[in-house]
Amino acid sequence: MDETKIKKLILPIIAAVICLGIVVFLAASPETEEEQPTIITVSAAASLTEAFTDIAEEFEAAKPGTDVELNFAGSGTLRMQIEGGAPIDVFASASESHMDILSEKGLIEERSRKDFTSNTLVMVVPEDSIESGTYPASLEDLTEGSVEKIAIGNPETAPVGKYTEQALEETGLRDEIEGKVILAENVKQVLTYVETGEVEAGFVYRTDAESGQKDLYKITYTVPVNASISYPIAVLSESGNKETAQEFVDFVTGQQGQEILEGYGFGITKI
Predict the structure, then answer these.
(1) pLDDT digits 0-9 by tens, 72-87
(2) What CA–CA distance (Å, rounded) separates 78 from 166?
(3) Does 124 share its domain with 216?
(4) In a domain, 205, yes or no
(5) Residues 92 and 143 grouped into a single domain
(6) Long-range contacts of 253-260 (CB under 8 A, 24+ apart)
(7) Out of 77, 98, 156, 191, which could bridge 73 as a Cys pair, Cβ 3.0 to 4.6 Å?
(8) Tell me, what's the pLDDT at 34?
(9) pTM of the prediction?
């Protein structure tokens, strides 16, 4: 067989092998950039844990190819993380003041900011004290000798603590109970102190009281506050996925997001 005929026979085989190799390589290679999920990080107040976990799941289901990474803590702690350059796309705060601070520093997209829900401050006490008949049922009762420890959120980082402190100051009781106060990192930790019986009373949002282990404590008092407990949400200026971040904000403030929040006891804000 001459050299020309051999080449004619071999070249198609070589081409087929090369094509097969390309197919195998593509099949074994990582997903292309277009197939990679879009990831947004949402930092939200600790009191939003249960509601936002559900909201994130529903948002991902409604927008395939999107992953929502959730970061929960006291609003003040989250605000300081953002100020420190943490890669956050959306911030949902339990306090207008922490959002205002970010706004003043140009760290949020102003047009995206919305108040999306509200809450109520309550006092909770361990179930054991209810059964014994000795428990605080008003702010004034906190001065009684039977009340030795009171848990409140740290006013510097947890808005629930700031609202509590304001209420106590308005009644003139803050200084009187100073020695009894135990500061907690966030509202969830306050509730844990009450659930475990480490304190005689604690101040939390009603939504947290409704979603905790209700057989371990009881709400004994709804605390009046001089300003509504409203929650703002906004897209961060440094977000790398502003379009998706805005879609998440729209979802939270839309019908489906509002229904989830309402299901957890949050107030609904008409937007």
Answers:
(1) 999 999 999 999 999 9
(2) 22
(3) yes
(4) yes
(5) no
(6) 253/114, 253/116, 256/58, 256/62, 257/55, 257/58, 257/116, 258/116, 258/117, 260/51, 260/54, 260/55, 260/58
(7) 77
(8) 56
(9) 0.81
